[in-house]
Amino acid sequence: MGARNADIEVLGAEVSFREVPFAAPLVLSSGPITGLTEAVAEVVVRNRRGTTERGTGSVLLSYPWAYGARAPRGEDRDAVLRSAVEQLAAELPDLGGPADPLRLGGSLTEAARRLASRQDLPMLAALVCAAPLDAAVHDGWGKALGEPVYQCYTAEHLGADLSHYLGPAFAGRFPGHYLRSTPLPRLPVQHVVGVGDPLTPDEAEGSAVPLTEWVVKDGVRCFKIKLSGKDPVADAARINDVHRVVATAPAPVRLSLDPNEGCPDPGRLAAVLHALAELNPVAREAVRYAEQPFPRESAGDLPGLPELTEQLPVLLDEALLDVAGLDALAAAGWSGVTVKTGRGHTQSLLAYCWARQHGRFVALADLTNVGAALLHSAAMASWLHCDAPAFECNSRQYSPAGNVGTAGALVVRGGELDLAPLPREGIR
């Protein structure tokens, strides 16, 4: 397909940073997160009609998630990621155009890949650094069209169909084929229970809010339980304890498991499920899926994974680095994907389309998004058809001070996030 009037060129890009302290540590299998840096990108774009607009994007530079087990000793990872964002911003105007944002996003991903190779960065870290710029490009494109981007991913506005990115099975298909015609007005909230988070008032220290209070305050009924992955019996007991505490939540209670690469192999997670089933069959039945239990490096070679996924969907997160590898990862036994804007709007949208076309499981995930990043993540989620539609929104737990303005107006009532404050322009 040829050029479209909607095609844009990037005239300039700027980035800034702000510190986002956490009110309480978010504890993963790799350790606690007590604060992160938000990277904010602003681009100026112009389409073929001559319309000029500014697009914005932001993401938290979550180096524990981005680096995983590759964390180098003695290196200031936050400083490395800030520098990488600045380098990609300087390169963005020279990556080609005019083009649609999917093509520009693909070029930005390749630039991130080159940067990762030059600086020995994990590819996921490079994608995180590209993510605010990628989001800003899509945002500017939509604003120049005067519509939410999610209504513009069609043959009318895009220069190529999805076969250009995902292979011949997608000939004649565009992202719009897989999106809702109108966005959801509310999203069920998925509450995160970190490793060691207090469940009851007796366990809470200082200003920490126990899980029982969150259940009463927000009416949440969907819970993501972070696991250490070290001891199947201890992990099963933790899941059981959480289920016992939230059993008073409005039914049905839904659980998901997130070891953040903490399980060495499928056998470890299978042992957790077996121990949980013996301990509390009702709690086992409440578990809907597991998110990236295993190290990203071993994602393509996990004996026993197909057998495990007969018991429970197991979804890609940290190992989702390139949509070109999705077919191979599916063949290795993975059940589906988590959609997370922190790895990039383009990559998230393409992975979602791939999963929907192939009937794979889709869930939403988060990166403790705050401010404009939270608005972006919530807006995107509202346009998707997900098998597990609960929206993580964990900044309300760990970094509420980062949500000012419109983001601060997003309120949880009866376990659902009311999206009425969203501007519904650009990516938000």
From TrEMBL:
Keywords: Metal-binding. InterPro entries: DgoD-like (IPR034593), Enolase-like_C_sf (IPR036849), Enolase-like_N (IPR029017), Enolase_C-like (IPR029065), Mandelate_racemase_C (IPR013342). SMART domains: MR_MLE (SM00922). Transmembrane segments: none annotated. This is Mandelate racemase/muconate lactonizing enzyme C-terminal domain-containing protein. Belongs to the mandelate racemase/muconate lactonizing enzyme family. It comes from Amycolatopsis taiwanensis. Residues 205-315 form the Mandelate racemase/muconate lactonizing enzyme C-terminal domain. GO terms for molecular function: metal ion binding. PANTHER family: D-GALACTONATE DEHYDRATASE-RELATED (PTHR48080), ENOLASE SUPERFAMILY MEMBER DDB_G0284701 (PTHR48080:SF3).
